[in-house]
Write a structure and sequence with these properties.
Order of helices and strands: HH
Helix content: over 70%
Largest sheet: none
Number of strands: 0
Number of helices: 2
Distance between the termini: 10 Å
Shape: elongated
Mean pLDDT: 92
Low-confidence stretches: none
Length: about 50
């Protein structure tokens, strides 16, 4: 099921920003590898589902 509209675009924008934040946290060693990969996988899955 694909949801469309302004709300979806807003969620996609925020999730992409979240991915950038995750990348920065990982680069600075502020998040574990396991946590990074878990959050990144779920984030990517949600983004893919909404597109």
């Amino acid at each position: 099921m694909k949801v469309r509209g302004k709300a979806t675009e807003k969620v996609l924008k925020h999730m992409k920003s979240f991915n950038l934040l995750l990348d920065r946290q990982k680069e600075k060693a502020l998040i574990s590898e396991k946590a990074y990969h878990t959050l990144k996988d779920y984030s990517d899955m949600l983004i893919k589902r909404l597109q």
